[in-house]
């Protein structure tokens, strides 16, 4: 499965150029114009340094004269190109002053994609040749408070390229697109591991049929999670309920003078097994034992069910629900006791 990467940025940031630099070939048309060159979303998939990448080039969503009515369908097309959702957003900025205009672009990105998009974002600076000699991009970022805050919201992830000047031989080990590309790919690899391959989604831009499909899937998953947690609780509860009953029986056997007291304890769970007197206590205990075993299992199962159901509420999968339910019943096993400790 390829890693899906969406490039975002204002016109002139160099999105198409960067996409070509990453893929190592001219697959996206580049324009030298003050107007937005890319007028619709385009995706291409290639193998890059042993990884499969799908890059989605986008028009200058937030800085052209598009109306809001035109913008939303284009964003929907963008997300459709990388369905079921992008793993990474590349937010492109030029190595230049971070002005109010750039901040407005970031604000619009967050408005339309939500702040959650920044959790999947990498800030990529283009026109790296404008960096002062010997300066690294982290130092450049640190000189601007707003820029520093933005990079921090993106998990500290930032890289720099120069699509024009850093492609030749004789470049140093920093001002070199191949060096920067490998560092960028390692950042993407790390994101994929940390997020377990998860991707960005936004129901606002999903077609109605996809929303319904996800709702049904969500309900089904929640049911399976609750079922797994509850069933685990019932089974373990029944086991500990019977174990508690056996504890009662063992104490009675070891101390015959306690027969009447223990039989009365058992008969509280099985009223039909009434005891007439101490002379028939042992016989009554035998009759009650079968009924009490079932009753103890049922009582334990009910208790385990409650523990398992509560514990599985925060689970994200059936397996996690089983684990949480198991832990909850183990921690609460003392509540299954029928007799007070000696």
TrEMBL record:
Keyword Ribosomal protein: no
Gene3D superfamilies, A to Z: P-loop containing nucleotide triphosphate hydrolases (3.40.50.300)
Example of a GO MF term: GTP binding
One Pfam family, short name: AIG1
Membrane-spanning segments: 223-246
Entry annotated with the keyword Transmembrane helix: yes
Entry-linked InterPro entries: G_AIG1, GIMA/IAN/Toc, P-loop_NTPase
Keyword field: GTP-binding, Membrane, Nucleotide-binding, Transmembrane, Transmembrane helix
Superkingdom, taxonomy of origin: Eukaryota
Domain AIG1-type G: 1-209
Coiled coil region boundaries: none
Family under the similarity heading: Belongs to the TRAFAC class TrmE-Era-EngA-EngB-Septin-like GTPase superfamily. AIG1/Toc34/Toc159-like paraseptin GTPase family. IAN subfamily.
PANTHER family xref list: GTPASE IMAP FAMILY MEMBER 4-LIKE-RELATED, GTPASE, IMAP FAMILY MEMBER-RELATED
Full protein name: AIG1-type G domain-containing protein
């Amino acid at each position: 499965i390829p890693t899906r990467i969406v490039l975002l940025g204002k016109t002139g940031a160099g999105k198409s150029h960067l996409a070509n630099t990453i893929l190592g070939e001219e697959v996206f048309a580049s324009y030298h114009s003050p107007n937005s060159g890319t007028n619709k979303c385009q995706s291409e998939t290639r193998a890059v340094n042993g990884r499969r990448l799908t890059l989605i080039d986008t028009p200058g969503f937030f800085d052209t004269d598009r109306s809001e009515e035109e913008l939303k369908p284009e964003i929907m097309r963008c997300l459709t190109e990388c369905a079921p959702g992008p793993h990474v957003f590349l937010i492109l900025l030029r190595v230049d002053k971070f002005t109010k205009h750039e901040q407005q672009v970031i604000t619009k990105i967050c408005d339309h994609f939500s702040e959650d998009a920044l959790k999947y974002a990498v800030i990529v600076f283009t026109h790296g040749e404008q960096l002062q000699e010997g300066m690294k991009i982290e130092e450049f970022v640190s000189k601007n408070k707003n820029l520093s805050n933005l990079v921090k919201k993106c998990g500290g992830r930032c890289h720099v390229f120069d699509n024009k000047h850093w492609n030749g031989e004789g470049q140093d080990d920093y001002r070199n697109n191949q060096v920067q590309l490998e560092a960028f790919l390692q950042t993407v690899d790390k994101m994929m591991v940390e997020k377990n391959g998860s991707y960005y989604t936004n129901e606002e831009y999903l077609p109605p049929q996809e929303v319904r499909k996800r709702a049904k899937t969500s309900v089904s998953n929640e049911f399976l999670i609750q079922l797994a947690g509850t069933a685990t609780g019932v089974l373990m509860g029944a086991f500990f309920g019977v174990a508690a009953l056996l504890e009662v029986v063992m104490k009675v056997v070891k101390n015959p003078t306690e027969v009447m007291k223990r039989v009365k304890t058992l008969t509280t769970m099985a009223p039909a097994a009434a005891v007439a007197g101490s002379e028939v206590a042992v016989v009554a205990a035998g009759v009650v034992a079968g009924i009490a075993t079932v009753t103890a299992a049922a009582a334990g199962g009910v208790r385990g069910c409650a523990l398992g159901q509560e514990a599985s509420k925060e689970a994200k999968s059936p397996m996690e629900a089983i684990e949480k339910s198991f832990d909850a019943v183990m921690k609460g096993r003392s509540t299954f006791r029928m007799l007070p400790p000696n």
